[in-house]
Fold these 2 entries.
Entry 1:
Amino acid sequence: MVEEVVHLIFSDFAVFIPIIPIVASFIVLFAGKYVDKKAYGNLIALIATGASFILTLLVSGEIILRLLLDHAHIEQKIAATWFHVGDVKIEIGVLLDPLAAVVSLMVALIAFLVVVYSRSYMSHEGSPRYYAEINLFAAAMLTLCLSPNFIQLFVGWELMGVCSYLLIGYFYDKEVVPEGQPHPASAAKKAFLTTKVGDIFLFAGIILLYLETLNFGQPTFDFIEVRDLLEAQAIHFDPMWFVFIALLIFGGAVGKSAQFPLHVWLPDAMAGPTTVSCLIHSATMVKAGIFLIARSYFVFEFADSDAMLIVALIGGITAIMSGTIALVQTDIKGVLAFSTISQLGYMTIGLGVGGMAVAIFHVINHGVFKALLFLSAGSVIHGAGTQDIREMGGLREKMPQTSIVMLIGSLSLAGIGNGFFSKDAIILHTLDHALHEPLVMLVWLSAVITAFLTAFYIFRLWFLVFPGQSRKPEHHAHESDSWMTRPLWTLAIVSLVLAGIYFLGNIPVLNIELIPLLNIEHHMFEWLEPLKPAPDIDKGLTVLTQLSSLIIALCGIGLAYIVYYPRKNATVTFSADGTFKFEVSEKDSIVGIQETSRSVIRSIKLTFIGRGIQRLLEKGYYIDDLYLGLVHVIYAYYCELMNWLEKNIFDNAVRFTGRIGYELCGFSRWWDDTVVDGLVRLTGRASVALCGLAKATDERVIDHGIIRGSAKGVMKTGGYIRRVQTGVVENYALYSLMGAITIIIIGLFIAGVLPL
Amino acid sequence: MIADASIFVGIALLLFLIGFAGFIKSKSAIRMLIAVEIMLNSANINFAIFALYNDIGFVTGQIAVIISIALAAAEAAVGLGIILSVYRNHGTVEATDFQALKG
């Protein structure tokens, strides 16, 4: 590896990558009503994201080519000072390095394709607001990917949160929501608040890291500077304290990337338009958490290995938990949502065991094929007019293109295609790591089971949607137009090309590097972690893992085929007990196997345990209910406490006061009757006498003279002055301005500016 | 350092007058609230500018601005709460419709 800083030709354009979409966002918002009226200003958004994508292609393409051909070490920061606080300089700009290059390229590509796709998909429901928010989101994500310091990263991070909130709640005025699904407005609120919990952890982590650099006398937020400081002064810091900081930063990723305790928002986020689910909640924004950890990986490496272990365990729990929930989903987007959480769990496992290169490798591959799957699902929803896979079936004849691209995406997700390479790399690294750390064995087990589940549930989806006969023929499904199919084909081709490149680079199982230049998996390690030695994994282990990965994926697909494939035009119905029923007219040997296995599965499902598990999965392990219940319990205990306080303390206090008052009354009554009454009578007599005198004075002097006179005066004055009190706020404001002007003039007189 | 302070003070004055005109002219309570925010911002500009051109120090004025922004946020929250409750009770937020203070 050559250690020289190269000058990039296109680096000057990098600044414009986030600027173009953010400018376009405002233009669309205000001018979208007038330009490209039919598509709500789609054209502006299209040009902006397209330009941004071309720039990213130039900048990232150059970086990747230089990395491939020159083995250059690229780390170029182009930044201007944003502001100073004390001694700290906060910069704004771009940091060009391999990590930023690969991730921003994927983000820009998917953002552009989603805007193209939206032109047709949102042709009835779109608005300039939608395109403005999509563009703002793309700008925020690119800002985050290219940011050179934690502060800019956090700005992009929060901006994405806001865009996510706005876009999940895009149909906020929807009146009828399908049963079992949250209302878009409340789903948006839930997503925003849940991720906010993680954001607070992240911010605390950033501040603690900053304080650590401050302690050392070089306060900075810059990634490179913090990293160099840590590397140079490693002995002066406490690794245990860094575990804490690393876990706080990981907390941010747990929120944004929907990891185990905070994953509850992502399934609900599917209430937004499918394009939004594709762009934000599967391909890009949820990857920001993984990206964040990759960016601040030096903190994790520096921390004690406990931090990594926790990351890997959380990833393992998330992967298997949501993988199992995806098995029972009947909503097409629900399957994909839980699949996304599960795959994000994979990436987290990758971060926890193998280093960030495998995780980022999976981020790229997953971004491509999951965007493809979501956009295909959008095409299905658009064509079939429903999201429920119980009402689909037989769409292959009506939507041939969608069925093929979705098959490519499903294969890739199942682990045959470009998804194979990254998923296999993660499993391999987990196994390698498990040899040193026995607890990781559980994570490996979770990863392997999830691989099987993934292949099963995605093909369950495909077999129930595309082959066979339509279950709702009255829907009149149709193929989507070319605005939608072209992005789908683009993504499918990108997925296939990536798979081809990886395959040529390193043929799995045989372990032959046909063209070493294209062995991207190996290069990822070189680019992203240049300082670490390349992982040395036993060749036999590699072959074994790859072989078993393939077999597991094929087993999953095969099982899905046996259980869910409607052979010989079987009629599929959805029965009330929650299972699909298959009725076949003609039989052959495979149909026989299918029928036996289905009856076995049904008998398992109908047992007490089977029904319990089914219910557990449908409820998502009751985590939502747990959170709700927790709030209820806390509230109930609070009420109990208040009730107790009221009954025992306040009530007694009141009664005691009452008793004292009663006793005092008895005394004062006696006092009143005997002493005071006597005095009163005496005084009364005297008063009567005096009154006679006073009456005369009163009638003559006071009544007519003073009282009536003054009352009249007051009434008259009031009558004049009341007109000032108009009750109109503006008038009061005007009076106060007049008052202010008067005070200023008086002030000027006193100061001697105006002559007296 | 940069330019004459009077330019910035002039901008602040202009902003204040814009805000004030908005406050006087607008009927809707929400618009009035927005206008008040503009006026507050002109005051904030004054804080920052006079801090910049004085020897007191740059940061002092900025801190005052940040406190003032926080106060403005709290005020906006209260104001919006009042407007919301007024809307719920009367079904309108036109300020001219409310003359309960009329003598």
Entry 2:
Amino acid sequence: MLSFKPYIIATALTVSVLSIVGVSNVAHAESLKGAVKIDGSSTVYPITEAVAEEFGAEYGRVRVTVGISGTGGGFKRFSVGETDISDASRPIKKKELDKAIENGVEFIEIPVAYDGLSIVVNKDNDFVDALTIDELKAIFLDGSKVKTWQDVRPEWPAIAVKIYAPGTDSGTFDYFKDVIAGKTGSIRADMSISEDDNVLVRGVAGDKGAIGFFGCAYYFANADKLRAVSIDGGSGAVLPTKSTIESGEYAPFSRPLFIYVNAKAAARPEVNAFVEFYLENGPALADEVGYVRLPSDIIALTKKNFRDGKTGTQFLDENGEKIHGPLAEVYR
Amino acid sequence: MNNTANPSATARTGRFFKDRLFVVLCLLSAGVCIAVLGVLLASIITQGVEYLGGPLLKNPPSRKPEKAGIYPAMIGTIWICSVCALTAIPLGVGTAILLEEFKPGNKILVRLHGFVQLNITNLAGVPSVVYGILGMTVFVEMFKMLGSASDPIWTLGTTDNWYYIQLPFGRGILAGGLTLMLIVLPIIIVSSQEALRAVPNSLRQGSLALGSTRWQMVWNTTLPAAIPGIMTGTILAMSRAIGEAAPILIIAGIVYITFTPEHLMDDFTAMPLQIYDWAGRPQESFHHLAASGILVLMAILLTFNTVAVIIRQKFQG
């Protein structure tokens, strides 16, 4: 921590200089040069791509590259200092954090959007309108006895339940497993699994008894082919919409997406300008590409944390254990 | 009744019937292949035609499908495929010549020869993602023994020269092209060997009888006779190289890039990666964009192959 302070000061200085120049900053945009290397989650990629595109229109001489090596693959490069920014669809893990510390990489953690995890059924399925968390557990947990919809609720018809789920090492699956099975449980194995969410969309759309889950962007784009199920997290059934996801009402399936910024790189003017641009325009662009913007108080917090150079993760406790809970409660 | 009256006639109609049946079966299997290809092409063309006329060929990627383009990926693909062809063809054909034309006499060398042959044949079946990891270790990192890409131990030229080279290579064009070379080498070697084997031995003997050395025999007689077969193998190999996404995902990983490569160590992306990203998007217009990308990829592949076919025709004639 101590050895790290110079960077924080440098970052803070750069930021304050930038904010003092303020207006002339735009004039500088043309002359700013350098490169910003970004890699990581393909889920976060559309947002970062949109930001990079708009950033490029203003800062034409900064070379921004964005990769899709996956959250884990991105952190692998990030933790050895190969990339400046890492896209992540989940918080950093203990192992990845240890590796970053070992290589002297300090980072600033910034949530950028919500990806509501939507649970969907077939369009012709007119009986399932809402599911409680307990019913989801009954359907999805390992050792589940549910074979037909009648086993979920006795008044529902005896149509076979067919489950479509994303790949088991995707961030979406991880998040779903965390919510449904918790730390120790596991999800049943007899599901149709695909790494390609479009295959899941087609699967659920073509099977009357089907249920599936994936990121809300895929539901929003296919709302005419699928029906989203309201989720009852204890305080009434809530449909996944942009406003219920943003407000956190759609609990517990609002999943935050992150970017991790290398603190040393953040002191470079081009990286700093890029992240500032991201914080400013990210929410609107996230909304445009199909994700959900964060509530304004969290956005304000991300700006403050970046400008203060607040490093480290807020999703692991001192013992490296995962901290569970909604973003609004965990992120400070 | 007929059977007893004229058994040979029945046997003959039976034989002819089988012959007809065989022809019909052959036609059917060919028809199925062509039908599948036709359906594939038709669906890609109907989906992809929408964005073909637009800025697809001149723009970088964008979040708006109507503004999105494949230009940097297209140039990246041309760079890495050129590196791949320029390295894989001489190496592959050279290896094939060694294995076919310079067979060893000594017992230990015969064993070694057999061992190398067996390994090359097996390598042709290794999944390309494995080559991606191999390329990562050997070319990108150079076993982490020569420093890192950001702090190279040796450089040639500067980043302003197209031939700029550093050690280790890092995640640039050269590493990508050489990894593709690893993937296609076994295909080129095996098919070149087949082509060389098909050259009649009498040609070799005639050449040697006229007093030429083995080098002259290979260069003036065997190799020219084998070129059509070698070109066919090369076409297959390059068709595979241009469509590889998995190893490029490991080596470059980049999809969003607005500039085109300027030197051998520069960052790049390739068309299969861009198409893979578009095809996985939630919005249907991006799926159509992916189809347009596939059409462009096919056009480039056909251009590559036409050149190869022309060369083949020239040598056959």
